[in-house]
Design goal:
Layout: H1 3-13, H2 18-25, H3 29-36, H4 44-54, H5 58-62, E1 92-94, H6 96-122, H7 125-136, H8 143-172, H9 177-180, E2 183-185, H10 189-217, H11 220-227, H12 232-267, H13 274-305, H14 308-311, H15 313-333
Parallel strand pairs: 1-2
């Protein structure tokens, strides 16, 4: 239980409103509200005041692992020190306010970035549909007009997506150090982040499952149309459906992964441990070249052959190969 929850519990146990507690502590009601919502933490003097006011120990208020049965004043204090490092690591301190700002920023930009990725994936859909209509139907649409309109829409969607990537990148730039440097969180941050992570985890699991399933099942309409020998125009439309299903699945995966990743970033878990951050900086440079090459291959193959229903496999192969290539490079570096 974190400090915010303990303040709420003790205030309610004493049947006090936020205003009444604020009066007793000599602070504003807004200050108490921020403490209880984990937007800020009280200074040590206020913690001592609250401990005396609630009749609990400061250890109970300050230590997340203490529960309500361990709130007596005479509880002995013990400290554990981490001696696993041969030399000290310079860590940048992250305050509770800074952590909350980072989480809010990630929560705000995650759907925007997911939308930009969605737009990149569906950008050739109109081109595919119009080309199919021009070639397989008698609606009077020439192939030249279809190609022109489709390419213009493709470039427009990609341009808007790039604009979103750039603007959201500027918004998140001030928090870039969290993913690159070792950090130390101020009191209350770890407990707050763990609580929010646990609350978000069920939604993340559902979104990831739906997104992955949509990507796996996306070729089904195309396969069914091919097996049944349906008209060519129908097959073209199923290619557009395939790209749309992949785009929706990737949107769900990117959105939930970014939000969930903000919690693991602050907790320095998974891909954001100190060692992983060192590797990430190295792979960031390699990844820029790798994905740039993948994009060039995808666009060149697609425009030269016109096989948009097949060329999307480049992204699947690139994604599958990136992990072993990264591991191989890391091994060689060692």
């Amino acid at each position: 239980m974190i400090l915010a929850d303990k303040i709420i519990n003790e205030r309610k146990r004493n049947a006090w409103s936020q205003e009444e507690l604020a009066d007793k502590l000599g602070v504003s009601r807004q200050a108490v509200s921020k403490w209880e919502s984990a937007q800020s933490v009280p200074d040590i003097q206020r913690v001592i005041q609250m401990a005396q006011l609630f009749g609990v120990s400061t250890d109970y208020l300050l230590k997340d692992e203490y529960d309500a049965t361990e709130n007596n004043q005479s509880e002995p204090v013990s400290y554990d020190y981490d001696k696993s490092f041969d030399e000290p690591i310079a860590r940048r301190l992250v305050s509770l306010e800074e952590a909350n700002a980072f989480l809010e920023c990630r929560k705000a930009i995650a759907p925007k970035i997911a939308l930009a990725v969605f737009m990149c994936i569906v950008s050739p859909v109109l081109l595919i549909v119009l080309a199919g209509l021009a070639e397989c139907s008698n609606i009077g649409l020439s192939e030249g007009v279809a190609a022109a309109v489709g390419i213009v829409m493709l470039l427009l969607l990609v341009a808007v997506a790039v604009f979103i990537f750039i603007t959201t990148g500027y918004q998140a730039e001030k928090f870039a150090f969290l993913e690159k440097e070792p950090i130390e969180t101020a009191y209350g941050v770890t407990g707050m982040v763990k609580t929010k992570k646990a609350e978000y985890e069920p939604m993340r699991n559902v979104s990831m499952a739906i997104g992955v399933i949509m990507c796996i099942l996306s070729p089904v309409p195309l396969l069914v149309a091919g097996c049944l020998g349906l008209p060519e125009l129908t097959i073209v439309m199923t290619v557009a459906i395939l790209l749309f299903l992949v785009a929706v699945g990737v949107y769900l995966i990117v959105n939930c992964s970014m939000v969930y990743g903000s919690y693991t970033t602050l907790l320095e878990e998974g891909d954001y441990t100190v060692e992983a951050k060192k590797n990430n900086q190295r792979m960031e440079r390699i990844g820029g070249v790798y994905w740039g090459l993948a994009t060039a291959i995808y666009l060149a193959w697609s425009f030269l052959t016109g096989e948009w229903g097949i060329t999307w496999i480049v992204w699947v192969l690139a994604g599958v190969l990136f992990a072993p290539i990264s591991a191989l490079i890391a091994y060689i570096k060692k």
